[in-house]
Amino acid sequence: MSDIFYLLLRRLRQPLITLIVIYSVSTVGFVIIPGQDDQGNVWHMDFFHAVYFVSFMGSTIGFGEIPYAFTAAQRVWTLISIYGTVISWLYSIGSLLALFQEPVFGRMLRRRSFVNEVSNFNEPFYLVCGYGITGSAIIKKLSERGIRSVVIDISQERIDRLEMDDLLTRVPGLCADASLPEALDDAGLQHGSCVGVLALTNNDNVNLSISIASKLLAPQRIVVSRTESEVNARNLASFGTEHIVDPFRAYAEYLSLAAHSPYMHLVYDWLINPYHRPLSSAYKKTSGRWIICGLGRFGKALYHEFAKHDVELVLLDDDARQLKNYKNTVVGLGTEAATLEVAGVREAVGIIAGTNNDADNLSIILTAQELNPKLVTVVRQNLNTNTLVYKNSNADFIMESGRIIANRILAKLKTPLLPVFIEQMQRQDDVWAHTLLNRMSSIASDSELDSWSITVNEEATPAIMAIMGDGDQVKLSALMKDPRHRKDQLNCFPLMLRRNGDLKLLPGELTLLEEGDEILFCGLADASDQMSWSINNYNILFYLQTGEEPSHNLLAKLLKRI
Amino acid sequence: MNREKVIFAFFIVLALTLNFGFFLGEIENLAHHNVFEFFAAIVVSMICTVLKFGDRTHIGALMLATSLVADLQLVVAAMIWGYGAQISADGVTAEMISSVVSLSGGALLANIVSVILLMVETIVVRR
What we know:
In chain A, 50% of the residues lie in helices and 16% in strands. Chain A is of the alpha/beta class. Chain B has 127 residues and is an all-alpha fold.
């Protein structure tokens, strides 16, 4: 606020002084110059009349010579004064308009309205730094769920895009450097309703400083940070950043799951990714030799993940120094058939094109597919602009780091139980995953599978607490019935139950609920909406339990007793 | 020497001196109080106010405040005088001229504070 005010005052200094000087000189002139009254006597205008005359002369409204017709000398002075006052007005108004048109002033105004808007937020919101692929994907999903967010990005272009992207809720955006605490503060870092800060810029240092600022100002708040280096990840973890997402490692984990347990991978994919692949894709043979082209950060992350599961690997890189400490290596880019032949592409089950050059990656995939059509192909996409080419590349997996991070973070924001479940799930075998997958598929088929969690307590599930307060028990199965017709089942099933820190995967439907239970469900989003009826509304839950409409007023209760 | 500072100080001191010149003399005697001097005092005081615009320091805020006080007093004085000369049936009475002069005395005080602040700033910031 004060910034704009001071800028305004500072810029108006000169025009205002000009205005004052010209007006006062004109006024004094009229007082000094002798006039003539209607009787022909010499008459001097007093200050009151002079100011009055100059005022309306300056704005030229209802011009007339007062209180007596002017003498020639007075008219000369009037002429001079008209030009002086009009010019000074034009000058003042012109400089005011110029100020409003100045980009700096516009930026300050926009920033001010942004700060006002954010400080007026009274519902929980996320502060998202960086509106790239990741940021935009997350904000889109958040707004679909009715969760508010605020964006900071360093480029005005992206902020403009934010305005143009059709989001369901309004998301205020600020063009500023997110590494500056002042900008973060303006975006609501200290706001009481800010529930989480997502540092998603493509600069590790900026992400680090965002996380530090957030942790210093509000230690309890969730901080999610993206990072691409090991050192930074450790640094972030050292001061308690909740979620650190490394796109390369995240994708390496994801891929290695596909290589060693395809069903588990599919379950994971269904839970995390909005667009899931069909069940049939799991039947592709994925265990055997894998070829990794390009041993950069992504390649190394892949190597570590695959090595954990004893997958046979061949590493390719055109820089021999990179390959020094590794086994099974071939020097070369992989874009030529000869190099791939040496790496044994005909016997391999999968190839990963992970260099940081999109053209090379596509060329690797195309050459490899020609040599071995059954190959599972994974290709890394570096530039967002190449999406079209990649879509038509027929690769099995396209690694686009932005989307991976977005999905991971969303899964974490959606419900904290989901990551816990995924971790637990990975300890099970692939047969277990297969069963689970069949169950998911029977519920979701081609639709998007959603997941949500409920906590049994007074605040979140008043209906359950009320029924339990009446001395009745509530079974898990009651929540999964259709509130409109209790014989029907909702399209969902429980994935996990957490009770006093004990985790139970796929809990039985006859489990009796207790206060403090946390249950993770998966199913269609529609089922989640229906379920919120039964956990919030006593009458509906009563109906689901007993099949009767409860009598809820005093008269009905009395009548019933008779 | 800073040209801007010279202009700034010039106007602030000029506002004080003009104000003082007008104030000087018998309080009820119109002959002792020149109307041109009064007009000049108002104009210079307004210019002073505008000159003080946009200074974000604490002392700048104080100076702006004193200037605004001086302006207020002088404008009210001018309004009383104008009422007496133009509207009132009795013309400019002795009471009116004395209240005009006493209001200008108040403005004088504000201008003195302004000059003191200017001196303080000059002494503190040795450059």
